C-alpha cells in the first residue's frame, strides 16, 4: 500500500538512500548526511511546536510503497519573512511620445522583491522506478490535505516554483543566453547558492528592466515555460486553482504559480468522520483518506464506503492500519 506521512528521525537511512537518486538538478534536496539530519529535525520541530502560527517552518513528507520510502515532498512557511524573495517579473512597459503622437507597449523583465510572507510547496521527488500509478499525485496532493487539516499553520498564499525549460541535452537557454551574463558561476552552483541565500542575485543583476524583444528568440520562447518533466506537476497544480503570477525564476526562467490556500479545491472539500473497520463489504468509493492528527498524519488513496445513516466511513483493516486508526477514530476525506 502507498502511504504519505510526515518524516521521522528513524527514516534517516532510507531518506539518505533515496536522495542519492535525485541528481544534481534537485537543488532543494538535502545532499549530505548532515543536511538530511537537519531537514528531518526541522520538520519534527515544526510538527511539535506549541503554537499554530506559521514561522519559517518546514514539513517534510515521505511516500512509502510497501514499506519502502520512494518519494519526498515538502512545505515551507513564512518564506520571505526575514529576507525578500527575488524573482524577475514579466510586465508591460508603456512608452509614449506626445510630440510624435505614438504609444508602444514593450514586454519587459524586471527584478521583483516578494516581501509578503508566503508558504511554498517544494522538494517534490519520486524515485524514477516508482513514477506512475498515482504515486506522484498522492505525494503532491498530500500536502494540500495536510494544509486543509492544519490551515492555521500556513500563510494565506501558497507559491510553487516550477522548474524552467531545458532541451534534450539538459541545456537551459534562459541561463546560457541571458542569466549567466550576470554571474561568475555555473548554473548548478548559482542555483545551489540561491536556495541558501538569494541576496547575491540583487547584488549581481542591474535594477533596470530588460526588454524581452531584444533577447535571443530561443530565450524569448522559454520565459515562463516549464521543464518537460515538470508538466505533469504543472497540470495537477492548475487543477487545484494555481495560476501563474508573472514571476519568473531568475536562473532558469521557470514560472511561479500562486493560489490562496482557502481556494484550493482539496482544502475546501475536507470533511471529518469517524471510521468503522469492515470486512467483506463493497467499498464503492475511491479517494483520499487521511489521519489528520498532527502527530500521526498519514494519507492513502484507497477504496472505502460511507454509511449515510451513521455518517461513518467504512474502511478495510489494511487501510486503518496504514493510517494508524481504529474503529471510532476520526478520519478526513478530501
If you had to describe this structure to a student in words, what would you say it looks like?
With 334 residues, this protein is of the alpha+beta class. The protein has helices at residues 12-19, 33-48, 135-149, 173-177, 187-196, 199-204, 217-222, 231-239, 265-268, 317-323, and strands at residues 2-6, 58-65, 68-79, 85-97, 102-114, 118-126, 157-161, 210-211, 243-248, 255-260, 271-277, 285-291, 298-307, 312-315, 330-333. It folds into three domains: 1-79 and 117-155, Gcn5-related N-acetyltransferase (GNAT) (Aminopeptidase), CATH 3.40.630; 82-116 and 157-264, no CATH class; 270-333, Barwin-like endoglucanases, CATH 2.40.40. A hairpin with a 4-residue loop joins strand 4 (85-97) and strand 5. The chain is elongated. It starts with a strand and ends with a strand.
Short summary:
This protein is α+β, with helices and mostly antiparallel strands and 334 residues long. It has helices at residues 12-19, 33-48, 135-149, 173-177, 187-196, 199-204, 217-222, 231-239, 265-268, 317-323; strands spanning 2-6, 58-65, 68-79, 85-97, 102-114, 118-126, 157-161, 210-211, 243-248, 255-260, 271-277, 285-291, 298-307, 312-315, 330-333.
Amino acid at each position: 500500500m502507498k502511504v504519505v506521512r510526515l518524516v521521522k528521525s528513524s527514516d534517516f537511512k532510507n531518506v539518505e538512500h533515496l536522495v542519492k537518486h535525485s541528481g544534481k538538478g534537485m537543488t532543494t534536496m538535502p545532499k549530505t548526511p548532515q543536511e538530511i539530519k537537519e531537514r528531518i529535525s526541522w520538520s519534527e520541530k515544526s510538527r511539535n511546536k506549541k503554537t499554530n502560527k506559521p514561522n519559517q517552518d518546514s514539513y517534510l513528507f515521505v511516500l512509502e510503497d510497501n514499506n519502502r520510502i520512494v518519494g519526498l515532498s515538502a512545505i515551507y512557511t513564512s518564506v520571505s519573512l526575514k529576507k525578500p524573495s527575488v524573482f524577475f517579473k514579466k510586465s508591460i512597459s508603456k512608452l509614449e511620445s506626445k510630440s510624435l503622437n505614438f504609444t508602444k507597449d514593450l514586454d519587459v523583465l524586471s527584478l521583483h522583491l516578494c516581501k509578503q510572507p508566503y508558504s511554498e510547496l517544494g522538494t517534490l521527488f519520486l524515485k524514477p522506478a516508482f513514477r506512475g500509478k498515482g504515486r506522484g499525485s498522492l505525494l503532491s496532493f498530500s500536502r494540500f490535505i495536510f494544509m486543509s487539516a492544519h490551515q492555521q499553520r500556513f500563510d494565506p498564499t501558497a507559491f510553487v516554483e516550477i522548474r524552467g525549460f531545458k532541451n534534450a541535452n539538459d541545456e537551459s537557454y534562459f541561463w546560457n543566453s541571458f542569466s549567466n551574463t550576470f554571474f561568475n558561476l555555473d548554473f548548478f552552483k548559482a542555483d545551489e547558492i540561491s536556495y541558501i541565500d538569494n541576496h547575491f542575485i540583487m547584488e549581481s543583476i542591474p535594477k533596470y528592466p530588460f526588454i524581452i524583444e531584444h533577447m535571443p528568440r530561443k530565450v524569448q520562447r522559454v520565459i515562463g515555460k516549464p521543464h518537460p518533466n515538470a508538466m505533469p506537476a504543472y497540470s495537477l497544480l492548475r487543477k487545484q486553482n494555481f495560476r501563474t503570477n508573472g514571476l519568473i525564476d531568475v536562473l532558469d526562467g521557470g514560472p511561479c504559480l500562486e493560489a490562496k490556500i482557502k481556494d484550493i479545491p482539496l482544502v475546501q472539500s475536507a470533511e471529518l468522520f469517524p471510521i468503522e473497520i469492515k470486512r467483506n463489504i463493497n467499498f464503492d468509493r475511491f479517494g483520499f483518506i487521511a489521519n489528520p492528527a498532527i502527530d500521526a498524519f498519514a494519507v492513502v488513496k484507497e477504496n472505502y464506503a460511507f454509511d449515510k445513516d451513521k455518517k461513518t466511513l467504512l474502511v478495510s483493516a489494511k487501510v486503518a492500519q496504514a493510517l494508524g486508526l481504529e474503529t471510532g477514530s476520526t478520519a478526513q476525506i478530501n
